[in-house]
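Preliminary data (for renewal application), adenosine-5'-diphosphate complex.
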Amino acid sequence: MILIVDDNPDNIYSLQKLLESKNFEVDTAQSGEEALKKILKYNYALIILDVQMPDMDGFEVAENIAGFSKTKETPIIFLSAVNTDKRFITKGYDSGGLDYVTKPVDPDILMLKVKTFYRLYEQTQALKDIQLALEKEVEGRKQAQKELRSKVDYLHTLLESLPQIAFTCDHRGNIGFVNGRWFQFSDNEQAFPQTHPDDKPIAAELQESLDSGKPLEMEVRVKKRDEPGYSYQLLRVWPILENGENNWVGTFTNIDAQKKAEKEKDEFLSIASHELKTPLTSIKAYMQLLDRKLKLDGDCAEAKYVNRVQDQVEKLNSLITDLLDLSKIDNGKLGINKKVFSLERMVQNAVDSIVQTHDQSKMELHRQGDISGLMVYGDEIRLEQVLVNFLTNAYKYAAGTEKVIVDCRVMDDFVKISVIDFGIGIPESKLSEVFNKFYRVEETSFDFQGLGIGLYICSEIIRSHQGTIAVESSAGKGATFYFTLPLNLPIDAK
Ligand code: ADP
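Predicted structure:
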């Protein structure tokens, strides 16, 4: 808006019309006093100021304007009747005015100056806006930095309060912060604690995680600075998003007591199963003798009892064998003796032993697929153990249904053996866990006897054959357990 200050209403009128015809917004004042009041109240882009006014002349008004910080930079065009009087002009500039036009006003010259000042005003305004926006941004960034710093401080306080060793690192693995406990294990905040020579080095494992962006979880033995032995720690390193960048938080949790207890339990299982096996073998032998003797004596009621005892002894035997296998796996001693053998023979042996021990009139065992003549490389006895385990489970968890199917299929470069039953099935959410040690599906564990180690042993056997083992099932819909074996025979066996 432009303010016209003139004591002569006619002059105001003609100037106002002229400016409005060029689309400028205009305000007017008929005296210096009125002009000053308006200038303090409103913002003007330009003031056109008559020099000669009765009470307060234009120069006085301009001096006042220059005195207020709000208005001191508002451009002024003086309208002066005395164009030759240099004193006026100098006085005009001294008091903060910026230009002048002599009366009678030449509309073209006035418009030229008005437009120039107006453009200048607009540009100054735009610059001020930019400056304001920049100031705001700087302020915003300062605030964000402050918040970030307080978040980082909070994280560090949190890590300091943990009972574990804790640290942070960036995506290149450079350690940023370590808590006080770190120094019980390392004297250098850039170096990880010393690990056991048989364990994987932490820095290399961490780098792999950082590169893949996946959290790291590993058990590792580390050494306290002033103690001789190593203690088991669970190292977990998780990514956190900080300042738009991936940073990582790591903790070492002491699991030494847990590890010791696990080891003691494994040792106990190993000793107990060995010790149980010896008397059981004797019982089995004597039961066989007794069975033979009773059969020789002809049919009698005792023979039936002996058969039942033999069944139960067989169950006990397979439980103890599983426990023994488990301890062998834990000690890395599950012997696998591979050679080339006929897969058909192995499958048929497993099927025969199940058919002999499970009543076929209630639940029939069917076979599908032809693998006759197929030779594979592996441990025949161990693989038969896997199939027998699948089949025993099928008879156990699908009892009361009509059939169980053994399906054998040769795929591209592997063979797939499946056992399909139509029993209680397994909820989909539990499928990934059934091959874990001691895992039993909770919903059904009370209705069936078992230790939850058979499938774990199976998975270890298949793993040592570079095969795959899996189950497809859903609750109430039966289950298909299968394993695959690669078909590439060793060169000297072809
Ligand atoms: P166990 O049968 O001795 O409990 P396993 O390791 O053989 O141990 O099986 C683990 C669990 O998997 C079982 O407890 C059972 O819950 C489930 N499971 C195994 N086979 C089947 C099957 N054919 N149908 C349904 N559930 C099964």
